[in-house]
Amino acid sequence: MNAAFSYQTMVPSIKECNCMSITRNNRKNSIARAAIAIPKTRKKHSISQTELISVHGTASTDLFVHEIVERQTRKAETTALHLCQNPSFHPVFFEEAYGRCRDLCAEYAKTFYLGTQLMTEERQKAIWAIYVWCRRTDELVDGPNAAHLSSTLDRWEERLDDIFNGRPYDMLDAALTDTLVKFPLDIKPFKDMIEGMRMDTRKNRYANFEELYMYCYCVAGTVGLMSVPVMGIAPESLLSDHRIYNAALCLGIGNQLTNILRDVGEDASRGRVYLPQDELAEFGLSDKDVFSRKVTDGWREFMKEQITRARFYFDQAEEGATQLHEASRWPVWSALMLYRMILDSIESNGYDNLTKRAYVGRAKKLLALPVAFGRSLQTKPSIVLS
């Protein structure tokens, strides 16, 4: 791709940001192994930890992270393997580029931004650059180019290739290009996120959790895989890199499942149902019940099981959160705890996520931050899995 496309026509710009212009693999086997049944809470006491993980499909995450872990590990060991070549921009240019990323993160992800303040300056900048790229990618779905989303995503993927080859298109791209020089990031999770956006052009229903899991991996699990090389793994960690990457992926999956449960009513107003159709049917429900916005006993029982699943993924994420570099743990713990609180809010609303949007008030968020900081001081995982 060349610079023939202006930034304004490529993607919707983030508000108040004045930017400078400057073969998918077959996944059938992965999808088949990602099958996850609804966790039956009444049977929890009789299910071993290994069986519980199998039921929820955590073992299937190995299929998604193995290649990325191998590539990023090799890059970390041999700097010559970095794919990205840094363009010859003046240091002041990069400072301004990272400054714009910082401002956007502070505006749109206030709590997470606060958590990054304990990180080293280099890690801060990298996380801000990754956040901004992910946000811009997500905005493609609802932006002014959404009517032509397929072709827009194709151009966005070409633009991503340019970023990884040291040819940034604008100032925000340049911040990510510089980050790629400093940290061993692989292009695969970035491309997989774009694939998740493509899913929204093809699907507005998910037959089962196998399909929904793949969507959650693409649009959110990938963020965890992007972040681990920047967050850093604690030198004293006894867990394998692979296990920590799996935990990061679980946090992304849990976050996206929580987003889906929070936004059921909003998505329904757009004709979308991001819920497993077969599991709805098990509770005598269908799309008609979602669109009717009636909270029945069947809906409440269905939601209880969906919340149990999301909490399982957060539980799995904890072991990785304790093993990150000490300066990087607080924002991760903050996100983990605040998303759990959204699930609590859905319960407090009587499982009415059809007419109400669960949220966590500012006071509760502020109270959670010191608790998250305390958890970030932990150095041992609550569960260790081989």
TrEMBL record:
UniProt lists the family membership as follows: Belongs to the phytoene/squalene synthase family.
UniProt keyword list: Carotenoid biosynthesis, Isoprene biosynthesis, Membrane, Transferase, Transmembrane, Transmembrane helix
The pathway entry for this protein reads as: Carotenoid biosynthesis; phytoene biosynthesis; all-trans-phytoene from geranylgeranyl diphosphate: step 1/1
Q: Which GO terms describe its molecular function?
A: 15-cis-phytoene synthase activity
Query: Which residue ranges traverse the bilayer?
Result: 212-234
Q: Which PANTHER family match?
A: BIFUNCTIONAL LYCOPENE CYCLASE/PHYTOENE SYNTHASE
Q: E.C. number, please?
A: 2.5.1.32
Q: Which GO terms describe its biological process?
A: carotenoid biosynthetic process
Known catalysed reaction(s)? 2 (2E,6E,10E)-geranylgeranyl diphosphate = 15-cis-phytoene + 2 diphosphate
Q: What is this protein called?
A: 15-cis-phytoene synthase
Any one GO cellular component localisation term in the record: plastid
